[in-house]
Structure formats: C-alpha cells, structure tokens
C-alpha cells in the first residue's frame, strides 16, 4: 500500500492548516506535500508528480487563481480550491479556470477528503466509468439515454436529458452555471441563469423524491449545481 | 415643423397648467364702475351653491348698509373680521389667517383692489387672495376695471381721477373665470340718482366728473374689451395646451425704453397696452446705464427701479443695458432680440441736442431700421394728483446741502468782488477777471456743477457791473472790453462746468471706491469664515456697516429659522419681523419695509440665495435716516454672504463625510480582516477536531497532542482577536471611558509582562526599572493592554533566542516606557504607518513554530489609541542595534496638577 500512496500537494500560507491537514491526509492514506507560497507550489507541481493539489486562494505572493492558470498549462490532475464563503465570484472564476472542486473554509476534514476522493476517481478513468448511474430510485443509463424511476421510464425533453447527462458526467463535482448553460444551450446563453432554474425545477420534479429538498441534484448557492449519486 | 408632425403642446402652456394643479380657482366679477351690482351678483350665485351643499364662506363683503345685499349675507357663514389698530382708529379688516384655518371650499372676498390697513401681512387684498389660492382655496372676488394697473393712465385721461388702489393685470389675467357684470350707463346713472350706489366720501367729490355718461360709456367699453380679451386669452391658452397652432403674435417683440424721469411708469403701462394689442407679444423694458455719467441723483435711480418692478408685475422682461451711446446700445439690443416695436418717451430734449442731431428720439428713429417706433408724450406724470412739478424738474437733492452750495457760491463771488475792489483801488493794472475765475473754480470744486454755473453767472454780471467802464451799469464802453468780457463769459462758463463735473465725478468715484472697498472687506471677512456661524457673523457685521443700521442673519436650525448672528450687538426681532423673515425664507422673496409683504415691521428681510438654494435670510433695519444705502451694494454683499454660508455648510458636510468615510474604511477593513483572520483559526480548530474524530485510531500520540495544542492555541488567538476588535470598536465609537488614578507604571509593566510570558518561547524578556518613579495619573488597565499589545508584537516579530527589553525612566515632565526587540526592524517607509489599523509586516518570523501570535494588525493601532486617549504619546524607532531591532517609546505626561493635589 505504501508504495502507491497518492501524493497530495497542499498549497497554503497558513501553518495551522498544514498542521492538521498533514496528519489527516496521512491518516487517510495519502502522502501530504507542503508548499506555503504560490511560487513554491508551482515548483512542487512541476517537479513532483503529485496526484492532486489542494490550493488556498489567498496566498501572500500571488493570487490563487494565477497559480491555477499557470498550473493548468502543464498539469491536468485534480485541483481543489480552499476558499472563503463570501467569495462566490472567486469560486466561480476558479472553477471556470479549471479547478475541479472547492471547499469552503472552515471545513470538516471528512468533507475535504470526500471531495478529494471524487476528484481522484474522475482522474483514474473516463469521467464516468459506469454507463449506468443510480441515484436513489432513479437509474440513468448514459449509453441508452434512458432514465427510469422505480423501473418505469421517465419522459425527459432533450434539453432536460442533456442537462442531466452533463451533471451526471461531472461525477459529483460542481459545475458552474456558465459551464452548464454553455454546454446545454450554447455559449450565447451563458448568462441566462433563469433557464437553468426552470429546467432544474423540472428535473427535480421528475427525479427527486422530495423536489423541495433535493438529495441528488444539489444547488451550490451562487456557483452552480452538483450531481450526487448514492 | 412639417405639416405631418402631430400638433405638439406648447411646453410653456403645459407648465403653467402644471403650476395650477393644487391651486384654488379664481373667479372675478368685473364691472365698469361702482354700483353695477357685482357684489350682489357674487352673493346670489354663492348662496345658490351654498344651498346645493358647497362649503361657501363669506370672507369679507362690504354691504355699505344696503338692505338687499345684507339680506343675501344672512344664513351664509361669514368670517369675523380682524380689528387692526391704526393711528388710534380701529379698522375692521379681512382675517386672512382665519380664512386659511377655516379652509372653505369657496371663499367670497369683496373688492379685489382693496388696500389693507398698515400692519397687515400684505399691503393689498389681491396678495391675500394669491395666498388663499396657493393654499388651494377657491376664491370669488369683485373688481372695477379702473383698478387695473395698466389702465391707470387711460382712466386718468378719461375721468381725471387717478386711481390709487390698483391690482396688477396678471391678477386678473390669471383668473380662471371672469364674469362681466354689466348694466347700461343710463341705468347706472338712474341708480346713482336714486342713492342706490354707495360712494366713499372721497370719491363723492369726483362723482360728477366720474359718472358722466361719456365716461361711463368709455369705462364700459374698456370693461367689455378686457373681459373679451380674457376670454380670448383663455381660448389661446387652451389651444396652446392642445398644440393647436393659433393666430398668436408671430414674431412681434416690443422694447420699451425708460429713463429716470417722471415718464418711466407711463411708458411701462403703454408697453403693456401695446403688448395686449399684439396678442400678448413678448415685451421687454430696458434702461440704459451710462457708466461715464451715472445718475447724479438717487431719485432717478429709484424711479428706474420702481418702473422696472412695475414692468415685471405687468409681465415684462426687464433688462439694464450699459453703454455711453444710448441709441447705439438700444439699437444693438433691439437687433439682437428681433425687436419689432420700440416704445420711447417724447421728453423735452435740450435744444442743444436737437440742434446737434443728438436727440435720442431722432437717433433711434434713424437707426431703427424695420422696427416701428412709438412715441409716448409726457402726458400723465407718475406723481399722482399731487404736485407733479418737482418730480419732473430735475433731481431731488437734499435741499439743505444744495442751498449751502448756492449760498457759498454767492459768497465766493462776493469775496471775489471785494478782493477785486481792493486790487482795483490799490494795486492797479491787475487783470481783475482772474479773481472772478478763481471764485468760479472754487465753487465748482467745492460744491459741484450747479453752484459753479451760478457763480459764473454772478461773476459775469458783477464783473461787468462793478469793474467794466462805465461802472455801475451793465453797458460796456470800450470795444476792447467787449472782447475781454466775451472771453471772460466763455471762460467762466467752461470753468464752472468743467470743475463742477470733475467734482461730481470725483464724488461718484469716491462713492464707488468706498462701495468697492466695503465689498472687498466683506469678501475678505466672509472668505476667512470657516464655519457657518462665523460666516453669519461676518455677514451681519458687513451688512450692518454698509447699511449703517442694525443687521441680523437668520439661518434654518432644525427646520426653524433662528437668528444666528446680529450686528451691532444683540438684536431682538418683533413677532412681526420674525413673520416677515419667515416669509422671506419660505417664499424666497424680500419681505418687510418697502416690499409687498408686511411693510410695517421696520426691517427688510432678503433671502440669501446661494448656488444651491436658499442658505438663510438677512435682515437690515429700515432706518429713515439711512436713506443713502446703496441697494446694489447691499445686494452684492448678501450674495457673497449666501455663497460664504453655503461654503461653510459644505465644509461642515465635508468634515462629516470624511468621518463617515473613515468609519466606512474601518468597516471594509474589518470585513476583510474577519473573513481571513477569524476564519483561519476557526478552520484550524474545526479541521484539527474533525481529524481527531475521524482518524483517532490511526494517529500517533504525538500527533494527537499536537492537534489538541493547536486547537487550544487557535482558540486563544480567536479570543485575542475578538478582544482587539472590541477594543477597537470602543476607540472608534468614542465609547472609551478612561479612569484616571494615580498609578505606578512599574506595576502595570510587570503585570503586562506576566501576561505575555507564556508566549515567549525561546526568547528572553529583560526589565530595567528605576528604584523610584513618579506616579502618573492614568487608567492602568488601558496602559496594561497597550503594553501587552506592544510586547506581543515584539515577540511575534523577533526570532527565538533574542531578547525583549522593557525599561522605564522619567524626565522633567514625562514618564517614558521603552520596549525594545531584536527583530528584523521596520523598513523606513513603513515606520510611519505601523500604528495604522490592519497594518502588519509580512512574514512574522515565528510562523509555523507553534506560536501563532500574528494578530489582525490591530494591536499597535489599539495601543496608540489607548495611550493617546490618556494624553500620552507613542512613537517607534528602527533599526536600533545596527541593522536590526525596533524600539517603541511611550511617553506619559506627569500631571501638572500633581503638586496641588499632593499638597
């Protein structure tokens, strides 16, 4: 096991974060690497073939988004963002710049590690290895383009299906409004968030057990949506 | 505009309509003369509406004891009259305030042109009605046509009676409805003969003249035409509002030229009539000021001002042109403004000017081009029925001073005669004419043009009489003497004229210079005033000096106008004066003496209008002795004052804004700080705790302990941070209360050092205290917190193994605390700013060493705030040991009062 412990690079200027994150990652079976500035982080990404990066957006020497942009030029592995709750725009920009997911400070270690695992899963194969995804009583067959609920087929309009498929392919990561709109309606409609609200409402009505408190088609306030399988 | 464009409503008409919204409606019962039955008609109709349930109230009705009219008033609500004491008489007047308070739907007010008793709010009843209308009350009133301002001259020409009670034409043309009450002149004369027409005593004298059949017929025609014209106006107004193109004055523009003579008002009225004839063509009344020959007398200036005011009342635009060449100035203005009609007075031009072709009328006629020129003859002087002569015949000087001038001129010529006689007798051969010229010269220099002319005339006569052969006769014997005499006459006249003019101009220049210097002084004082009160005081003093009477400046305070400054000394305003001041403030018009509002209060109040609106009101006591006040000077000064007040107000607002902006900046900084500095320790606590919970089993004991320690440390850090924020809020919010007690600073330092001991790590803290130290008066807890903040900062920024030294000493007036560290020091650029909020240096050396002392950047700022709140000072110096180290000095003043308190 110790031979292929995935290496996780944590880029954060706060020593206190490293102080608990290092033992937590270690205990979860990863090998923590540490960088305290954007420059050091980029150097580490370039030199050490790390499996995933946890990046704090607030760094002393450079903007976290800048680190992200530069890293994406040569690094395709998962990058998770640590950010403050009141910085929606930062989060959205980071996601659009190629971050895989984000976690808000302060966070539970369990949540961070769950996101990390999901990100690593996506990386380990095609985005969705299984062609059939299950969420509660709903089954989504991406190959046959068939959605069933309690075994009975659910009628979805082409747009609804396109939106659902997009979310499912995301494999649990958050997709921003702009990403979803561009993919389903085309780039010209990237700002028409009201489309999304309406179609997500339709999908929840058809797929969620309790449409008012969705468990699988989850809203990330101010950022986008996320599909959560079982 | 092409024919296809939809008709567009005239914006002016719409605007006028909009200002009518919310106003009461005015109906005028118009008649040709007293006795036609206007009041009767009004009351009959009013009663009918009252019977239909409308709230009709009789405000004032003169029944003159007529039974049939009195019967009509019965049963209708009648407002009680207000008694006004005037010269021992009690006059029963219309009670405006009662009417405003009663707020009927319809108010009947007789005799629109009535003049109120002195001491009333408005001098004229039509002004009362104006106020009622703006309060939204509908008013009906009665009016005889001869009371219309523009018809005063016409009525005078027809009847020989000069009407004193007038209403401006606008008061009639603004009426929403006009009802003509008409009977035939014959019928009216029958009623008059039957005693059915009430006439006041004074009018009775003119009765025979006034009620002649032909007069009544003429007045009737005027009334009918006026009523027709109003109907016409209303039609045109309606058409304009609906955008229908009508037959209104296409391009006619009237220019009325006035001078400071007695004809000014007649000319204005003529202009109004002409404008009426031309379908309300726009008309302008102009006066030309000649900068090089200003009015030599005030009465001319006053007459011009009055005429311009009348023109505005009658609906004209007014303009004062400047230029030495009057015809040229007028024609230039006329050309520029496409004037088609020019109205000028036919005055008695001096023969000289006519001969020289310099007559104004001729010049204008020559240059007028397309414009028609109307001459108005000097028929009806403005002075009224009284002696019109003096008003017309030149300037009204102060008689005493003029008399002295003339007497002195006579005396001077007498003296010249005496000297000439002595010289003639004993000197011989001297040219005696020179002596007389000297007397003319002196008269001119000392007393002005007219005495000089008198002196020259006297000199010529006496010289001829006494000294030219044959003596004691006005005949001249020698031919040579004739030549001498002619030259003498010419020289005397020119000398007198020139010196007189020079002196008069010098006087005018001197007046102007003093006005300018007064303005300059005012402007200097006003611009030096930084607060509103200072500006108000400066303005009051300058206005008082300029008007040589008391002055007061009132400013709005909490919505109420209150006296902010007065000069000289305190001034107490009567209730009436305060009412006038409030009026000036609310309406933005002058009120008080010499105006249409509350003229009896003895003060004149003018609104101070600055660039952004009214800034306040300035009042000047109207003093009969101070007639020399230059109105324009006072007005200019008040304008300056208004701007100065406004500036001071803006400055106050700026200071407030700055304070707000600072607290906004603090708030923004707080948010930034909270989002980062509160969240980071919280993240650590939450992260470490969840790590312990989730992975308890797989953690090594050392790691577990470290996580627990980090939780404790971060919780402490949070606590300190919250404490800092609270301290800062207390400082910023001004809620910091300092106790002052006699304190040994060494005790405070020791306590503070104990509090930071645990965070020292590998550092050493050294103390250097003297054996004895003067007590100082301060708040020990604030000092302790300040010192703790400084020590924590020193610890956070200095590496392990270094030393922090705390020392205290005293000089003659201060106890000084010195705290030194051996950290990296502070760059020179930063040292000025380390006491600013949320300022911290990058990379504290202890980061990641288990001693997170890095605060929010508030510590030193709070220390400074606390120290200064106690009257002390704080400063930083760096580097102190070669290239490293920082020293913070706190200096606490020994209380001056120490001795007294301890003795």
The value of Rg of chain A in angstroms is 18 Å
Which structural category do the helix and sheet elements of chain B fall into?
Answer: alpha/beta
Number of strands of chain B: 25
Helix content of chain B: 40-55%
Output the CATH topology of the largest domain in chain A: Rossmann fold
Helix content of chain A: 40-55%
Characterize the overall form of chain A. Answer: globular
**Chain pair with largest interface:** A-B, 24 and 29 residues
Enumerate how many helices of chain B there are, as a single number: 29
For the termini of chain B, the CA-CA separation is: 97 Å
Low-confidence stretches of chain B: 1-5, 380-398, 842-853, 897-903
CATH superfamily of the largest domain in chain A: Response regulator
Largest sheet of chain B: 6 strands, parallel
Amount of beta strand of chain A: 15-25%
> How many domains make up the 3D coordinates of chain A?
2
Contiguous helical run count of chain A: 8
**CATH top-level class of the largest domain in chain A:** Alpha Beta
Identify the strand order in the major beta sheet of chain B.
3-2-6-7-1-8
Distance between the termini of chain A: 27 Å
Describe the protein's architecture and organization.
- The complex is a heterodimer of chains A (230) and B (903).
- Chain A has 230 residues and is of the alpha/beta class.
- Helix content of chain A is 40%, strand content 22%.
- Chain A folds into 2 domains: 7-124, 3-Layer(aba) Sandwich (Rossmann fold), CATH 3.40.50; 127-227, Arc Repressor Mutant, subunit A, CATH 1.10.10.
- In chain A, the strands form 3 sheets. Chain A has a 5-stranded parallel β-sheet, with helices on both faces.
- The longest helix of chain A has 16 residues, at 109-124.
- Chain A is globular.
- The model of chain A has no long low-confidence stretch (mean pLDDT 86).
- With 903 residues, chain B is α/β, with parallel strands linked by helices.
- Chain B has a 6-stranded parallel β-sheet, with helices on both faces.
- Residues 1-5, 380-398, 842-853 and 897-903 of chain B have low confidence and may be disordered.
- At the A-B interface, helix 1 of A face helix 23 and helix 24 of B.
